[in-house]
Amino acid sequence: MILFPAIDLKDGQCVRLRKGEMDQATVFNDSPADQASAFALAGCQWIHVVDLNGAFAGRPVNAPAVEAILAAVDLPVQLGGGIRDLAAIDLWLDKGVRRVILGTVALRDPQLVREACQRHPGRIAVGIDARGGMVAVEGWAETSAVSALDLALRFEDAGVAAIVHTDIDRDGLLAGPNLDATAALAERLTTPVIVSGGVASLDDLRAIRARAAAGLEGVISGRALYDGRIDLAEALAVLAD
User: Fold this and answer.
1) What is the pLDDT of residues 185-224, one digit of tens each?
2) Active-site hit among 8, 51, 167, 204
3) Is 157 an active-site residue?
4) Is 147 left (phi over 0), alpha (psi -120 to 50) or beta?
5) What is the C-alpha separation between 149 and 71, in angstroms, rounded?
6) Tell me: the pLDDT tens digits for 96-110?
7) What is the CATH number of the domain that holds 137?
8) Minimal CA–CA distance to 177: which of 193, 189, 188, 161?
9) Is 129 a catalytic residue?
10) Which of 34, 142, 164, 188 has the maximum number of C-beta atoms within 10 A of its C-beta?
């Protein structure tokens, strides 16, 4: 199972939010590239990057920081936040991003997701951010009337590489992931699912690893890695076991 260490970008810095609130950001590193290099040196296999400003603006905002990350490491990078048209998808994949994550546009324009999957097989993921089980978009500022499961099922035959399922109510709070909800989602899909939001301990990672058979590909962790609640080397060992 893959550990995806998270680099969330706000104003060019590496931060973590609480429940997606931009005014509750904690800066953990002024240099996202240095942070990416540290993750690479620790043995991570992937890096998960989110352009938080871009998610709200509807267009890429932290491009220089993303480009610096790509230049600093050879690891595959998955990127989300503000990617809402084919031009942006093509741009980032051409620049070296391994996989782009489409969130708001997956709800607003599902045909775009299908077209992107056809153009870039294996390199398109869908980010489903849920609040109370319902999909939230526009940087989590709006909650829709569509359930996470209903949205995920729309792309079962599209060729999506993975579903990134984030429970907003757990994100950044270190309260543990909503594993039951994510595993239940994964069990209904053939598309692999990545757990996101609330991971706080090695025990959380062990619980996720134990549910891998449900269709869980990996887990994203941010704040718990940054504040030392989870030792990165131990986390990698737990998920590799």
Assistant:
1) 999 999 999 999 889 999 999 999 999 999 999 999 998 9
2) 8
3) no
4) beta
5) 36
6) 999 999 998 999 999
7) 3.20.20.70
8) 193
9) yes
10) 164
- As for how many domains the chain has, the answer is 1
The pLDDT value recorded for residue 186 is 97
What is the DSSP code string of the chain? -EEEEEEEEETTEEEEEETTEEEEEEEEES-HHHHHHHHHHTT-S-EEEEEHHHHHHTS---HHHHHHHHHH--S-EEEESS--SHHHHHHHHHHT-SEEEE-HHHHH-HHHHHHHHHHSTT-EEEEEEEETTEEEETTTTEEEEEEHHHHHHTTTTTT-SEEEEEETTTTTTTS---HHHHHHHHHT-SS-EEEES---SHHHHHHHHHTGGGTEEEEEE-HHHHTTSS-HHHHHHHHH-
Distance CA 55, CA 62 (A): 10
Q: Which residue range(s) make up the domain with 28?
A: 2-240
The pLDDT of residue 233 is 96
Q: How crowded is residue 75: how many other Cβ atoms within 10 Å of its Cβ?
A: 17
Q: What mean pLDDT do residues 1-6 have?
A: 97
Please say if the pLDDT value at position 157 is more than 60.
Answer: yes
Which position among 51, 129, 167, 171 bears the catalytic label?
129
Mean pLDDT value across residues 112-124: 98
Query: Residue 15 forms beta bridges with which residues?
Result: 8, 27
pLDDT value of position 142? 79
Note the residue count of the chain. 241
